[in-house]
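Exercise 7. Predict the structure of alpha-1,2-Mannosidase from Aegotheles bennettii.
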Amino acid sequence: LQILGNVSEFQRVVSVLQEGLDFDIDVNASVFETNIRVVGGLLSAHLLSKKAGIEVEAGWPCSGPLLRMAEEAARKLLPAFQTPTGMPYGTVNLLHGVNPGETPVTCTAGIGTFIVEFATLSHLTGDPVFENVARKALKALWKNRSDIGLVGNHIDVITAKWVAQDAGIGAGVDSYFEYLVKGAILLQDEELMSMFLEYNKAIKNYTKFDDWYLWVQMYKGTVSMPVFQSLEAYWPGLQSLIGDVDNAMRTFLNYYTVWKQFGGLPEFYNIPQGYTVDKREGYPLRPELIESAMYLYRATRDPTLLELGRDAVESIEKISKVDCGFATIKDLRDHRLDNRMESFFLAETVKYLYLLFDPDNFIHNDGSAFDVVITPYGECVLNAGGYVFNTEAHPIDPAALHCCRKWKEEQWEVEDLMREFYSLKKTKKFTLKRASNHGEWESAKDPEDASSEKGGEKRNSRKTSHSLLSCPSQSFNSKLAVLGQVFLDNT
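Solution. The predicted structure, encoded as tokens:
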């Protein structure tokens, strides 16, 4: 967020990246971490580069140096997905692909956390391979859920046998659920949202106890670990995205009491004992509780959420600040420090705090202002808000996914139909179902109606001769509405 105000520094970073990034190196890399940090970071920077004042190349956002780097990085991860199940290995060698001795055991989050970045990449580049492998991995996890609707912690990607059978919402599973919701919002995809809602029922039935979420055996539903993990604190924010605000607030307040008790969230907290778990007393300045506070504050304006933000700022300043940064808390019981600062502190924790206290930030745009850009495929609306954060807090503009249509045949057919409807001066709504096999949903009103809905554009409202569907509007179907409620039907 700071770099957006410093164009020369942004340009320097881009030039350094162009000269220095080399993905053809003999090194093993985490498929999950490379995706959320490198691919997600490059895609987000690519989409924000024009807003940052960078002179973008012709064809942006469908082309650009950062987009090409994101695609190159993602292609290095594709060999990991070449398994009988479609679920990826956890590690890949950037030069040689998957090592022969690589373990086939991967955590659930490491399998289900690709659809946001990979679908964005497919829509911007026109290559469906990325979205396809991400979807296949998601469906494989769904297929292998237990009879009571739960997934475990680690699975063998070759045999699809669950190795760790603890089911919960925390470490090893968390971002899988997050990406079902965010993928559904980003792609207007009913199937992904339906998957999550089914999981949500099972989670409430078997893991929820008095607004806490425990760990249970995935086949029996019996409690295996009565603990709260700090990574679980993303859950209230996720609940707010599906409109379950009341439950979200109750769970958030439980987590907030733990924060007040220690001045931070310990990695593990024993719920029955009301205290930290041995050897899990640390607090590496994780963002999840602050992330939930930001989402919930946008939904409710409850001042309690600002109090958490104030507490977080004061606590971090008081117990964590050192001469060269902000140190991990090694033990919350006595606030001893460790000699490290995690990258997610700057990437996420500080960013979510900033957004919590900056109500006028462009990220919070409600669609009343936007930019119109010209792409090789027609006019396109960008920066209208509705940003989807990947799990490393890199914002993706969902409107950008409609800017780079490489699948033109369907669009031409629809344009012919629209011209025919226009010539007949129809007054009824014309609704188009799925426009391609890439999860895109769109609808178009009668052209006369559409011409009157140009309020807020940063251009003249006079009629133009551009294609009526060059920048399709998203259907109301599955859109966010009041308090983040997602609608799955046409009501």
